[in-house]
Structures are given as C-alpha cells and as structure tokens.
Amino acid sequence: MPDAIVLLSGGLDSYTAAAMARAEGFRLFALTIRYGQRHTREIEAARMVAAWLHVERHIELDVDLSAFGGSSLTTAAPVPKDRPANLQDIPSTYVPARNTVFLALALAWAEALGIGDIFIGVNAIDYSGYPDCRPEFIAAFERLASLATARGVGGSPFRVHTPLITMTKGDIVRKGQELGLDYGLTHSCYDPDPMGRSCGRCDSCRLRAQGFAQAGIADPLSGR
Fold this sequence. Notes:
This protein has 224 residues and is of the alpha/beta class. It contains seven helices and five strands. A five-stranded parallel beta sheet has the order 3-2-1-4-5, with helices on both faces. Helix 1 crosses helix 6.
C-alpha cells in the first residue's frame, strides 16, 4: 500500500481530497497547520476528520503566520461578507503564501518519510480567487520540489495531487456522498460565532451552501 501526505484543514475540500486518496489505496499521513487563524473550530474538525479517515498519523503543526498579518483570517480585520459571486478581486481572507508554506511543510515531512505523494484540496472553479489554488501554481511547486530536495535531485520526483482542482463545489459534494463521507464533521466558516456556528455570509459559507444546493443534498451543518 503506497503512502501519501494529506493536508487536512477540517474543511469540506480537504476531507474529500483525503478520502479520494484513501479510495485510491493510499495510506494517509495527515498534516494540519495551526497558522494563527482567528478560531480553532477548524482544528477540532480536522481531528474528527482524521479519526474518520483512520489516518496512520496526524500531526498538528504550529506555524504562526499571524505574526506577519496581511489577512483578515489572522488579524482582527473584518472578514468580508455578502460579496458578489462574480467579484474577481482577491479578498482579504487570502493568507499571504499560505499554500506555498503548507506544501513546503508537507514536502519536508514527505521527504523525511520517503513518501512521494502529497494531496491538497485546492480548487480552481468554485473558489475565492486565491492565486495559490491555480493549476499553474501546483505545477510550479512540483518543479521546485524536484530541484529543492535530495529525493528530487536523486531522480525520484514528488507528485502533488489535486483531485478537486477542476470540480465544482456541487461535484465535490456529490463525490463525498459517493464515498460515504460525514460532512457533519467538517467546518468551513471563516468567521464563526463563539459557539463555533457558521456565519452563513462569508465566501466559504456561501460556496459551501452553493455546493450542497448544486448537488441537491442537505448540508448536515445547516442551521448550526
């Protein structure tokens, strides 16, 4: 059975991507990053998701990007709500270089374990316009990995798998249902209340709602 590193945030996308990796026969090593985000609800969700997936090992790593600021997810700046669906600007919820940092950490663990496969749940169809969710970024990171590691220089490349990258949110939800996933374990909201309940108005909440509506499936977190 081959091994894979999966980046696990506790959200719908990373859960689905990890489950797809498991369905392909990979044994999973899950990496969750506490990056200084404003709330810990997604970390709790990541733990539940990791347990559901029966991962071989789950590491929660502290890399406090809030020291740099630059995002409403790591500072006290307000999270944007009710943005038009077709707005093309990069929102303040973009965390500078977050996926680059996350993939670099996953790469380090992968090389330490002798693993050549990394899974990340990025999506370039129904997303908030983040530059580090695009196929060209993933391709560039794979090239970097081949140059920056002993494994890569030795002729054993890394592959960064992005099984969701061309799927709509509706496609993702349908795939999750096909795999029997419990989306009630997940958390998507950028700005939950003190009880951990979703706001329903941030980009992430609205994209999630759109996905369940497209799939014709009730969101188990609806009303929570």
